[in-house]
Amino acid sequence: MTYDLVIRNGLVIDGAGGEPFRADIAIEGDRIAAIGAVSGEGHEEIDAAGRIVTPGFVDIHTHYDGQAIWSERLNPSSSHGVTTVVMGNCGVGFAPCRPADHQTLIDVMEGVEDIPGIVMAEGLDWSWETFPEYLDALEARRRDIDVAAFLGHAPLRVYVMGQRGIDREPATAADLAEMRRLTREAVEAGALGVASSRIFVHRMKDGGGTSPAQTRRRKSCGGSRLAWPTRMPASSRWCSTSPVCPGARRWIASSTWPRVPAGPSRSASARPMRGRRSGRRRWR
What's the predicted TM-score (pTM) here? Predict the structure, then answer.
């Protein structure tokens, strides 16, 4: 039998927990057709003697949301054996987004992930507004590895609430209903789920905001950098999961939380709340 590709003589570590073993691997189309002593030939053959052969690694926490738009190579991940990256973590991202809020989301990403704003301003073509359109923009581009994306809480909140979201005002019942509708739309279009963050060091790049609300928020944070749109207790209610995607087979709600200091004043109250919202069965 002839295969598209045969990788020979490699030390296979298959990720199942067993001992490494020497084997050939035959590939036909986009599927592994055989593992072991492969007698058939390949249209292409690779001698992997002295090398390790593994499944591709999935990096579940990355911030290639912008780089996946302007670059075909997702370095450094793709140079280290990663074959799929998950973006949209920590609740940051670039969709959904109205043209008037482009700079706001750039400021959020720069403040949270320290990616230079000038790079994003020049690299993003903003050929989308909704999250499904962002996925279409990703699909239209060539790149060296696969990508998957969360819907970010920050762009969702700003898209629905505008300046009120930026100023971290409480969401109304109508706001929450619209966030759930857009979350359902994103998941049905292909989003892995939704992501948020409550880490205290996650803040926006200042950007020179001088509105009374921004000034109050800045002072309440004890510094010149604005706390970002998801940093308020009431804002996380949107991710009440049961009514969001009743028809979806599976989706994920991901949240980055601060470490809760030990002590009688916080451990008794913060830990059960955190467990309920994360869906964990127990605290560890």
Answer: 0.74
